[in-house]
Amino acid sequence: MVKKEDIDRLKETARLMRINILKMLNSAKSGHTGGSLSATDIITALYFHVLRHNPKYPPWSERDRFVLSKGHATPALYSALAMCGYFDAAELTTLRKLNSSLQGHPDMRKTRGIETTSGSLGQGLSVANGIAMGLRLEGLKSNVYVMLGDGELQEGQIWEAAMTAAHYKLGKVTAIVDNNGLQIDGAVKDVMGIEPLYDKWKAFGWDVQIIDGHNFEEIIPALESAKTRIVNDKPSVIIAKTIKGKGVSFFEGVVKYHGTPPADDELKRALKELGA
Amino acid sequence: MTETLGTRNVYGEFLVKLARTNKDIVALDADLSSSTMTKLFAAEFPDRFFNMGVSEQDMMGTAAGLALTGKIPFASTFAIFAAGRAWEQVRQSIAYPKLNVKIVASHGGISVGEDGVSHQMTEDLGNMRIIPNMTVIVPADGIEIKEIMKAALNTDGPFYIRTSRVKSPVIFSDGASFEIGRGNVIREGSDITIIALGLMVPESLEAAELLKSKGISARVVNMSTLKPIDRDLIISCARETGAIVTAEEHSIIGGLGSAVCEVVSENYPVPVKMIGIRDMFCMSGTGDELLDYYGLRSTDIARASEDVLTKKG
Questions:
Q1: Could you tell me which of B296, B297, B302 has the C-alpha nearest to residue B282?
Q2: Does the reported pTM lie above 0.95?
Q3: Which regions in chain A score pLDDT beneath 70?
């Protein structure tokens, strides 16, 4: 059971995260609104409850790692890092601007706290596996979390990496599929169907959980199960059912907002909905 | 009879030697460990070896992840797959974040032979050279590759090192000096400079002998580091000999010939003739037959040298 005060705190944090995300996207005048908002609650749960990490000393070797394979959701990650204190929150509105440390997609060499450089879909699970292999060789107990998009599962490399994690018994790897059902060109099921997801991951040798990706009472235990699965040598995937654009009524489930930032008037209305 | 060594064989053996003292070295392969010779590493260090199966893209990403934990991954497969199939993974997951991954790709060029075009990589050097942060090296023989591996191990950042399927003449003695980014004049000459890498280095030395018999003094440069290329040496060769021939087992588009022309044309224009594959797919045959057929021999280099001399101002 997750404590009620933790849930309340996380809900409030996620609200502030969404406000940051919308403001930074509006300021950037480009970027990915829908997928940032669908990933927000999970990223909030990771950075403000689940991950062992140290914003004062990011390279702490025993930290848990988070790989954002769907790099276009990076406004959510930047927002979490700033709110954790990795860098000044005032930097958030420099997103995507010339000479900013906040690139359009994550760049580990430019942004404090970013674990891996990503943005080209399909590659993060392989990188997460490699991290898990290295940590195991080092005898470190850290967990490795990697967030994938559902459209991203159309990349063949994901399934190569799914085989690798099972073959090398990378029980420290937890993948989270942000299953919002939409991609740039439309509904995932129309563009290139990926179902049956549960059966696919099972067949690839993974433990599979399906949760509501906006409900902390489901998100937290699912993510934390990675910590208790010390002896388990199976990688684990959490298929998180999410809503693209979650938190702003007129963005929810609208394909257009995959890669469209909020315009000024939309930002105003959205912030109002979020009680900003 | 000249001694011959296969750069891939020496790679496999020497990697084991390096790994005995450097515990951070890990190796990955994509089901070609008996060809790239990482099988020797696998036999001695099974816990530090990862066979990724036939999945080169995943291998590059996994190598990136291992590097993120402080390991020094040596990732091997054929050149076509490392620099072709997995190009974007190399760019995105390894080169862009400047991770310490050493890609050592075997079976470069057409001397691969009988397998044909699908396995003959004549675009790898161009593909890798164009990526920022990437160091690209082709050893001239089975001695130099050891020095190259030591240098790569001691230098943080991504490397692409090409080895050959075939054995080739040994031209250096043990302990040959190698410095990343430095070409070596391995034969002095004043009329023309032949700049070569890989298998074309011994061919160029032979070409210089052929030219000598015709009264032409050819300088030979081993440009094993294709990137960062030794601009100073190229410029001084252009100034001192006034004509250049490049020789590579690679397309003349994007490889050594292009790299030399970029330097020469910007800094000290002199006539250049390029020996290499001229924008075509080749075919099956033995490695030797193909090198003959596609004009990658000492006689071809010598002929090109005589030709370029006629254009010298």
A1: B296
A2: yes
A3: 229-231
